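We emphasize that the prediction below concerns an isolated chain of 125 residues; any contacts that depend on oligomerization or on bound cofactors are therefore not represented. The input was used exactly as deposited, without trimming of termini.
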Amino acid sequence: MDALLPATPTEFFVFLLFGGILAYAAWVVRSFARDAAVERQVLKHGEDAEATVLELRDTALRVNRRPVFELLLEVRQRGRASYQARVRKRLGPHQSVGAPPRKSSRRRRRRFSRVSENAHRGAGC
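Result of the prediction step, given as a token string:
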């Protein structure tokens, strides 16, 4: 049993040094694990917050013919300082931006053949 305890001051110092390093490493690992658990909880269940749109900008991108907008938000959560976040969102299928949709610049031409009245009557009508 006496062989496990440090006998000289150098051994005692080395024992305390390695003990301190191990304690610090355990504390760091535990804090990372706790932060990861909190992040998983927030991602799974979310947190209540309120956001105000500060800026709305059209990105000129379209996804499935729907416009993509970039929003600058001011987010406020209870017990935390407010912060700004920039997100990109596209409109849902039944949402509108207030302006009528643009018509396509392509012209579609349809060709119809003329049917004479005699040919139409001769078809048995």
